[in-house]
Design a protein that fits this description.
The complex is a heterodimer. Chain A is of the alpha+beta class. Chain A contains five helices and nine strands, in the order E-H-E-E-E-H-E-E-H-E-E-H-E-H. Chain A has a single domain, classed as Alpha-Beta Plaits. In chain A, the strands form four sheets. A two-stranded antiparallel sheet of chain A has the order 1-9. Chain A has a two-stranded antiparallel sheet with strand order 3-4. Chain A starts with a strand and ends with a helix. The chains are: A alpha+beta, B alpha+beta. At the A-B interface, helix 1, strand 2 and helix 4 of A face strand 13, helix 7, helix 8 and strand 14 of B.
Chain lengths: 159, 627
């Protein structure tokens, strides 16, 4: 069943645990380097506002369409995107194509990188801690159905 | 000893006089002995700075130090320390901050950055991995820290560049000057900003694209997810942690007020009438507080708030902290949240330490109310306790050293010596460093000891015997020395590793946790005993440094006011005596393996694998340098 990342940017503290752990679990030599992460926290430090930027798992994906080398694959069942580093030429066409700025680039390996949801067990979600007074975390991972219901709850709460 | 993880293995040394930079290998034997951060930087300062070096000038060094844990996944691990010789205390100084800048030092590939010499003209350092460049900062000189950071991000065309800078206070060599990074994080206390200003170094901008290796990622991740998680929710400190997550460090204020240790009107009292009403939820709501965090911290004690309306509308602060809140609030007799945010932001922009500035202003207010300073002396300011407008004017005068501000910019100790007339009685400092917001004395003999013996002067971040002291018999000295040592020791491994000591201590991470985490990150085996030895080693090393610079047992004392009889609160009628302090000092020195004069014995130093330091100490003693 397709599952999606749920993001509530209004409570993101900008701690970048997601970036750090993402880079570590995807590193071939056990390194932490947030610039090699597949999630990015846009920091508006002056106003204390933080926005997680990560793949939205488009079905008709601009990144896939932009890739001339067939390097980006989508698992139709789970909705997980993966990039084949053997096929990726590092042309960055996918980075240009993504309207959300959610494609990234590993300048060490010279290939495009994107969220692969850790094959269905996203570590960023594990490390995104809920503050007790908020009760839930900024990042979560759930079925599309549950995702929709939470979106509705969030919209109603803002009314 | 090879590097498996944690360390980058490189030290960047920048000589501003020679306009040169070199990369040196990290001495791994020293790294094993002192771990990194505070311990390693203290050893470098001890080895490299001549005795009696002038803090303001080319002789002094600024060591920006990280540790093996910095930039990894440990909670609070984006933290650095600046180690230098303090212009305010003329002793050892370590000053910490969090944010994103600290991890960036590691990502750029350095464990430590040592800055030496003086630049001829305003300079900033631009570090992009291996590229190290000294650039002209004439156009930034005079700008606030806020403007400097924004300008540099524009100039370098990258808003993920991390910047640490000084403001006008640092340029004007004020002993109250801070180094500010990531807009809202500051290395305060002791005048680090003045040392940087004297080097004509306006800022350091860093961009790093290299990785920090973790020896055993699975072990580290499991540790953070299971052990740390369990401590947050079920540990002994869980309640404190929950409060900290919601209200930041302000969570301690009601209890401080109740136990009579909340700095009030220059420490005349420990309870503030305005604090009885403090409702932390109301503060959250009137300032529209957002929870923000340093990199890789799940506590999020930095509370971002903005004043919505009134005379201070639009004033904002990304780190509303208890120390600022009390030193600018109750200690100045003001109970306006909006005012506190305004002054906090003003101090940050001008590059002033809110603790030191709050302390010196409260001192000035008392001098004024007692008639030691006239309105004419103050340039026409009516400096009564509670006069908000006067505070704002004086803050600006201090930063730019205008009028009487020139005197107060030197800090509370020098100001009281110049004003004289007995004002030393209520100049609230230890070793020259102003008291932070916890009021020591008979209500808290634990804090009295903590302030008196702290190596950098009155300090609440060596140990904060606030919660733990409540379990001991009140108003007496029993158990305090042991408690202080235990609390302080528990923090030292984190000061070295380098990780936020507030986060780790609120999470209740003990020596066992430290040893496990260090082992997972670095890949060497560490034990609980190693952590204890490290703590004792670092404490004794810094003690020897301070002794060499002229400190003695007599300096381990408090302001005269702290020995006065208590007039109100739970301890009314009781008094904290010199004898009580002396008995705690005797006990503490003995626990540390120091003699009655507070000098570490040869056996202690040798046992702590500090034979080299012990030899130096003997040499200094022969030269008559140890008093």
């Amino acid at each position: 069943m397709k599952k999606k990342l749920f993001i509530d940017k209004s409570i993101c503290t900008g701690c970048r645990y997601c970036e750090a752990v993402c880079s570590l679990v995807h590193s071939h030599n056990h390194q932490v380097q947030p610039r090699r992460a597949r999630i990015f926290i846009h920091q508006d430090l002056i106003n204390g506002i933080f926005t997680p930027i990560v793949c939205k798992q488009c079905t008709k994906a601009p990144c896939v369409e932009a890739c001339n080398f067939g390097a980006i694959l989508i698992d139709p069942l789970l909705g997980i995107h993966t990039i084949d580093p053997q096929k990726c030429t590092g042309c960055m066409a996918c980075l240009e194509a993504c309207p959300f700025g959610a494609m990234f680039f590993d300048s060490e390996q010279n290939v495009a990188i994107m969220c692969d949801l850790c094959k269905g067990d996203p570590k960023c979600v594990k490390f995104c801690r809920a503050l007790p007074h908020i009760g839930y975390s900024a990042l979560d991972y759930m079925t599309v159905d549950e995702w929709l219901r939470r979106r509705v709850r969030l919209a109603l709460a803002k009314e | 000893m090879s590097i498996n993880g944690g360390y980058t293995g490189k030290i960047l040394r920048i000589d501003l006089s020679k306009k040169s930079s070199t990369v040196e290998p990290l001495n791994m034997l020293e790294a094993r002995r002192f771990i990194g951060g505070r311990g390693l930087a203290a050893k470098l300062l001890f080895d490299e700075l001549p005795s009696g070096a002038e803090p303001i000038g080319p002789e002094n060094k600024l060591i920006f130090a990280t540790g093996p844990v910095t930039g990894t996944l440990v909670p609070g691990s984006s933290r650095y320390v600046i180690v230098t010789k303090s212009p305010e205390t003329k002793l050892f100084l370590d000053s910490y901050a969090g944010g994103n800048f600290p991890a960036e030092i590691k990502y750029a590939g350095y464990d430590l950055i040592i800055i030496e010499g003086n630049a001829e003209k305003p300079t900033y350092i631009w570090i992009d991995d291996n590229h190290v460049e000294l650039r002209d900062a004439t156009h930034l000189w005079g700008k606030t820290t806020f403007e400097t950071e924004t300008s540099l991000k524009k100039e370098l065309r990258n808003d993920t560049v991390r910047v640490a800078s000084i403001g006008p206070a640092g340029e004007n060599l004020s002993n109250l000057a801070i180094v500010r990074n990531d807009y809202w994080h500051r290395c305060g206390r002791g005048g680090v900003g003045a040392v940087m200003g004297s080097k004509k170094l306006k800022a350091m901008a860093i961009h790093g694209s290299q990785g920090v290796r973790v020896a055993d990622p699975q072990a580290l991740m499991n540790y953070v997810l299971t052990n740390v998680e369990e401590k947050i929710t079920k540990g002994a400190m869980a309640i404190v942690a929950t409060g900290l997550m919601k209200y930041g460090t302000l969570s301690g204020i009601p209890a401080m007020n109740a136990t009579n240790i909340l700095a009030t009107r220059n420490f005349q009292k420990g309870q503030f009438e305005g604090a009885h009403e403090i409702d932390l939820d109301v503060i959250r709501s009137i300032l529209n507080v957002r929870d923000t965090a340093c990199m890789c911290c799940s506590i999020a004690c930095c509370k971002f708030g903005k004043v919505k309306s009134g005379q201070y509308a639009e004033a904002k602060s990304g780190s509303i902290q208890q120390e600022t809140h009390s030193m600018i609030g109750s200690n100045l007799g003001v109970d306006s949240e909006e005012f506190i945010v305004k002054v906090s932001a003003l101090c940050d922009d001008l590059g002033l330490d809110t603790i030191g500035t709050g302390a010196v202003i409260s001192f000035a207010m008392e001098c004024y109310e007692r008639g030691f300073l006239s309105q004419k002396d103050l340039g026409g300011i009516d400096l009564r306790f509670g006069n908000q407008h006067a505070v704002i004017e004086l803050v600006i005068m201090i930063a730019y050293r205008r009028g009487i501000g020139d005197l107060f910019a030197q800090g509370i100790k020098l100001a009281s010596e110049k004003i004289g007339q007995g004002s030393e009685e209520f100049a609230m400092h230890a070793k020259g460093l102003a008291y932070p917001a916890y009021r020591p004395g008979v209500s808290s003999p634990g804090f009295a000891l903590a302030y008196a013996v702290a190596d950098r002067g009155a300090c609440h971040r060596r140990a904060r015997p606030f919660v733990a002291e409540q379990t001991l018999a009140p108003f007496v000295t029993e158990g305090r020395a042991k408690l202080y040592k235990a609390l302080y020791d528990e923090r030292i491994p984190w000061h070295c590793a380098l990780c936020c000591d507030l986060a780790t201590c609120v999470l209740g991470l003990n020596f066992k946790d430290a040893a496990s985490i260090f082992s997972a990150v670095v890949g060497w085996e560490f034990t609980e005993e190693d952590m204890q030895t490290l703590a004792d080693r670092v404490a004794s090393l810094i003690r020897v440094y301070n002794l060499r610079e002229g400190a003695t047992r007599a300096d381990d004392t408090l302001a005269p006011r702290s020995f006065q009889r208590e007039t109100n609160g739970p301890a009314a009628g009781k008094v904290f005596t010199k004898e009580m302090l002396n008995s705690m000092l005797d006990e503490y020195y003995a626990l540390r393996g120091w003699n009655r004069e507070g000098i570490p014995t040869t056996e202690t130093l040798d046992k702590l694998d500090l034979v080299d330091v012990s030899k130096q100490l003997k040499k200094y003693d022969k030269l008559g340098m140890i008093k």
